[in-house]
Amino acid sequence: MTTPASDIVIDVHGLTKSFGDKVVVKDLSMQVRKGLIYGFLGPNGSGKTTTIRMLCGLLTPDAGKGTCLGYDILTEQNEIKRHVGYMTQKFSLYADLSIRENLEFVARIHRLENPEESARQAIEQLGLENRAEQLAGQLSGGWKQRLALGACILPKPQLLLLDEPTAGVDPKARREFWDEIHTLAHQGLTVLVSTHYMDEAERCHEIAYIAYGDLLTKGTVSEVIAEANLTTWQVSGSADSLASLAERLKGMSGVEMVAPFGSVLHVSGRNKTALEETVRSLEKLPGLEWKPGEPTLEDVFIDLMSRSQDNFQ
Ligand SMILES: Nc1ncnc2c1ncn2[C@@H]1O[C@H](COP(=O)(O)OP(=O)(O)OP(=O)(O)O)[C@@H](O)[C@H]1O
């Protein structure tokens, strides 16, 4: 079934951007449907922020074209800015103003008709009532991010671009922040969010993985895992025996990735038969238990990243 054009909020093709002689985003195409939470993942410096800035009209691509909220990213950047909420990595508010004062201030900047009422609604929506008079500078990381989100949704954007909104925030606050994102998406807002956290990636409706400027994979979490076509074995044992096994596995037939996850070693590769033969040859080693396992999203990303790094070097 094809999606009606009006349901596609981001539709860009061939986006390319260089800084000096460094190509930071290469021929990137992506489509995001309305009401979706779309996760944007990839190693540091892979071009996520640059892409986000091209989508919201803050940067002009060197090549490529497309629309955001139906507006042309090359010629209608001001329209896009008017309808998009962008929470940057270093989004900051006035530390010596209260939550309420900060929100009223933002509402005034956006020339909202009734700043006090808009701020009140945002405070209610984000469950900040008990803290409305607290100074923003005294808030914990999680509450600060929630306030920043409140400021972004004040002008009632149709699209939210969140650049690593929960970096450094504790797990409980991250979970609450994500509950809020889901509520907003349920109300029809589209959200593009960059993150380094796997649990957050798994809470997205769709994800895209970008490394060194190349968009390597996209789809739902299960599509991305299936497409990677990885076979994974999980080995448990003592820390010492796993460490020496990891060394021994390097370069063995069928072994493309070895990654420790706590007290379990994940051994993955795309050639199922070759990997199985290697596993059979090592199964008799004492103190180790081998189990066929399902590859996780993290296995897939580690594999994608190491392969793209190889191509990059
Ligand atoms: N204005 C700029 N001038 C020069 N280089 C830049 C500029 N903006 C970004 N870069 C470079 O482009 C590359 C991609 O940066 P970008 O911030 O888009 O990556 P990212 O995926 O968002 O990284 P992170 O996860 O660390 O935030 C980096 O090497 C960065 O140093």
From TrEMBL:
Transmembrane segments: none annotated. This is ABC transporter ATP-binding protein. The keyword ATP-binding applies. Keywords: ATP-binding, Nucleotide-binding. Gene3D superfamilies: P-loop containing nucleotide triphosphate hydrolases. It comes from Hohaiivirga grylli. PANTHER family: ABC TRANSPORTER G FAMILY MEMBER 20 ISOFORM X1, ATP-BINDING CASSETTE, SUB-FAMILY H, MEMBER 1. The keyword ATP-binding applies. Pfam families: ABC_tran. One of its GO terms (molecular function) is ATP binding. It comes from the Bacteria. Residues 10-237 form the ABC transporter domain.
